[in-house]
Input
Amino acid sequence: MDSKDALVVFQDKKIRRIWHEDKWYFSVIDIVAVLTNQADYQKARKYWNKLSQRLREEGSEMVTRCHQLKLPAEDGKLRETDCANTKDVFRLIQSIPSKKAEPFKLWLAQVGKERIDEIENPELAQKRMKEIYKSKGYSNDWIEKRVRGIAVRDELTEEWDKRGVKTKREFSILTSEISKATFGMTPSEYRELKGLKSQNLRDHMGDLELIFSMLGEKSIY
Output
């Protein structure tokens, strides 16, 4: 793992992370230490042990989804530590009474409200998406192609669903075949070529690549 990818900074504190099963996993102990303002990792571990017990008693599956993954310790050696994916990190933050956690809790509440609003009015979701892409520096022309590409993809997956394609693996196989016919490589190979990990492949495509992706998917049905 590249050293520059092994850490992410949160409130001037370093959080260890590792790429596992196609997603980022973060050190639970590191996050607990930051949110509880503990410089002593032994105390942070004790806090996590008590918190994990309480979460189990509440019926939360967050603890069972944690993975024991090897991360570099203070002595430089790789040691197994509890790690959680992004979704479970948010659940962890919600469980810790801390002033440092409060801004995240408020943000999560706001995001939840926005998603409910978007369910009631789907146009809000598209507007939000365009605003996000614009804030990242994408041109209006590129954004329109990206939005149209998403609509074409949705139409395609709906058609597959009607024809009995149900599992994630089946969708993945069909997507790979279209990608190979369009670009001569699978999405994972294309992502590797561009040096991507968790990033969305199509967000890193140029105008012509987006057009070819649309044509490849549109020609299937």
